[in-house]
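Q: I'm teaching a short session on how sequence maps to structure, and I want students to see two examples side by side rather than one. Could you give me a first protein with its sequence written out and its structure tokens following it? Keep the formatting plain so it prints cleanly on a handout.
A: Of course. Example one:
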Amino acid sequence: MKDPESNYRGRLAPSPTGLLHLGHARTFWTAQERARAAGGTLLLRNDDLDTARCRPEFVTAMQEDMRWFGLDWQEPMVTQSERIPLYRDALARLHAAGLIFPCSRSRRDVLAAASAPHDGEENDEPLYPPEFRPAAGAPLPPLTDPIAVNWRFRVPDGEVLAFTDGRFGPQQTVAGRDFGDFLVWRKDDAPSYQLACVVDDAAMGITEVVRGADLIKSTFRQLLLFRALALPAPTFYHCPLVTDDQGARLAKRHDALALRTLREHGRTPETLRAAW
């Protein structure tokens, strides 16, 4: 039950690029349980900025599957593709502060650079070589409309960043060593996950982000953006990842463990949760 005195605001933020699986369900259930324990509010955000893979039928399916599993949210769903002006305004603020720079280098260029070993984490950005940066303080070209070049955030090299995770405890990294300059806007004129997530979490008043442990490194990037944009940062709780029988992290290609498939095979939310 919601406590009218509670200021806790959590969120569920699925991306409609496929069917939700058991890993999503466990993380979302944890988010709901933490919101309920705090007597707070749980929101739903549709992270649909990947226009190449997001499909309307997956938006419908994710809401149906979440309701079936017992998940509930208290306000109308927020859709990222409807919020582009907010992200563009944040980009303009970063540009005015000289904290970003245009980048014409491809991912292949970055991976090929001797100083840019990949850290081996699936879906994570390779370490951006400092020699690819423009000189500090060099005049920036204006932001165009539409944007047709990548823009990156210049990280403060050597700065130690830290936060305390609600599940895994103290976390620490070094900017420029453990991760490099990262994308905030893509050349296909779309905001990056990092920028959109920060802008939305602040605008929605999110006080705690509950998500998978694969996004711990993203938290450091996002904390830099919260600071650069003078926005209040939430706390974070990262959940252990669910794996398949071979120990591989679940992905949306694991159709056998999709909530919709499990439901069709007669599984119930109660029996699925009892196995955790």
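Q: Perfect. Now a second example for contrast.
A: Example two:
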Amino acid sequence: MSEVLVNRVANSGLITLNLEDFFPAGEVAHFDLKAYLFMELILKEKDFREALKEHDWTQYAGKVLLVYCSTDAIIPVWAYMLVAAYAAPYATDVFQGDTDAYYKAAFARALAALDAEQYAQQRIVIKGCSNKPVPPAAYVELTRKLQPYAQSIMYGEPCSTVPIFKRPRVLPS
């Protein structure tokens, strides 16, 4: 006599959310202002404007352009604005900051659009391991957003979770 195998995880009613599903689409390109600084310290406006005019902006077509300076130089705000003005006709988006800052902002934007009410009274597992660089801030933001609605929030995989939040039971009076 053979026993029937029952998938208890599938029958548990858990809802798994994978933050990789919110990962920003599109290729990321970098524009480091360091290459345009005199002695890697000083931005000379005339030289900078001339270099931007001669730069091949078409290489950023369809990409997200991250504009930053990898040296400890003081960069005037207008320099970032000028790069954005040149890149805007080609890039899908222009972001001032490095890769980590971009991913944090992109996840914050994506999670702001999430309707957390749809998870009211649900048992949620926020998937742990990911193949993409999901910043810890995204896990924090998703937890913060779900907590007012979810019955419980767990981290990990449905077969092995770490409890994060559980709504207290309300006893009948």
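Q: What should students look for in example two?
A: Point them to this: Residues 99-112 form the longest helix (14 residues). Also worth mentioning: DSSP finds four helices and seven strands in the chain.
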